[in-house]
Design a protein that fits this description.
The complex is a heterodimer of chains A (about 110) and B (about 110). With about 110 residues, chain A is mostly beta strands. Helices cover about 0% and strands about 55% of the residues of chain A. In chain A, strand 4 and strand 5 form a beta hairpin. The chains are: A mainly beta (about 110), B mainly beta (about 110).
């Protein structure tokens, strides 16, 4: 398996634009997590899914952020409209039920100018 | 409110010596602890874990110690190698509830040749 795949690796966008980050979890994993890493707050959980269903989105900072998981092999994190303070590295991770070790993708570095 | 704290942002160690990375937690519900390693431009990768029913877990050069009464855990790397230079994150989870991990802010380890 290729591991968790995220795209794009880098995204530069202008303030006010819509940004969509994509994630393909490891096949067979039933949990999917979206994390954000910033200098100020470190790695923080935004939202996670179990069997494609959002379980806890309390980490999503604002209504500008939304996440979907239409099927077991794909998830998106959307920011609309984007703001400079959204600049961060966004990680997707997946894990198999019954274990806690999550496998991370390489991340998407988002820069909003 | 940081529930998982890594108070040392950086640590430098000579090759061949022991590296000790520390982590403190405040949430007494945490019962499973993990260490992740992160290289630049990559996602965190799982390194080693420990359940609260143990006080030590060893895997090759890596040993994690857990002191529940002090709510403290540490990662020992012996002997340290230049390839160990990375950011190390401590993470915690309450297995009885959800699957998400709470991360510390990370410690940059530099192993000097």
């Amino acid at each position: 398996d290729a591991g968790v795949i995220q795209s794009p690796r880098h995204e530069v966008t202008e303030m006010g634009q819509e940004v969509t980050l994509r994630c393909k979890p490891i096949s067979g994993h039933d949990y999917l997590f979206w994390y954000r890493q910033t200098m100020m707050r470190g790695l923080e959980l935004l939202i996670y899914f179990n069997n494609n269903v959002p379980i806890d989105d309390s980490g999503m900072p604002e209504d500008r952020f939304s996440a979907k998981m239409p099927n077991a092999s794909f998830s998106t994190l959307k920011i609309q409209p984007s703001e400079p303070r959204d600049s961060a590295v966004y990680f997707c991770a997946s894990s198999l039920g019954g274990t806690t070790e999550a496998f991370f993708g390489q991340g998407t570095r988002l820069t909003v100018v | 409110d940081q529930q998982v704290k890594q108070n040392s942002p950086s640590l430098s160690v000579q090759e061949g010596r022991i590296s000790i990375l520390n982590c403190d937690y405040t949430n007494s519900m945490f019962d499973y602890f993990l260490w992740y390693k992160k290289y630049p431009a990559e996602g965190p990768t799982f390194l080693i874990s420990i359940s609260s029913i143990k006080d030590k877990n060893e895997d090759g050069r890596f040993t994690v110690f857990l002191n529940k009464s002090a709510k403290h855990l540490s990662l020992h790397i012996v002997p340290s190698q230049p390839g160990d230079s990375a950011v190390y994150f401590c993470a915690a989870n309450s297995r009885g509830s959800a699957r998400q991990l709470t991360f510390g802010s990370g410690t940059q380890l530099t192993v000097l040749p």
